[in-house]
Amino acid sequence: MLEIATGFPVWMSLKCRVSTIDGKSVLGSGLLGVQGREGKRILAKQQQILKNIPQLLRKYECYGLDRDPLFIDLIEKILCTDPAKRISPIDIIKHPFCIAAN
Question: Are 79 and 49 within 8 A, CB to CB?
Fold first, then answer.
């Protein structure tokens, strides 16, 4: 979902070029991409992003999703670092954001 919202891959650690909504070419790296895919570094990057997802999304042309409380709630639940508290695939389908999209 973050890839769709931002246009950037989530895990790619190398620089990549993507096109924005208006056709501009932008250089960036994956939202959670870290060199070497080391677990502790990925977790630190994930925690940094989780601190303020709307602020992260404002850096991208994200179709207004940075202002959608249902989208923000769903992303926070998907990215929860505690597996026991993380949203299940079944609950994702039942989440109000997904229901509203139908």
Answer: yes
Cα–Cα distance, 51 to 94 (Å, whole number): 25
- DSSP letters spanning the chain: -HHHHHSS-SS--S-EEEE-TTS-EEEE--TT--GGG-HHHHHHHHHHHHH-HHHHHHTS--TTGGG-HHHHHHHHHHT-S-TTTSPPHHHHHHSHHHHHH-
Question: What confidence score (pLDDT) does residue 97 get?
Answer: 94
Query: What are the boundaries of each domain within the chain?
Result: 2-101
Could you tell me if 39 and 51 are in contact, meaning their C-beta atoms sit under 8 angstroms apart? no
Q: What pTM did the predictor assign?
A: 0.71
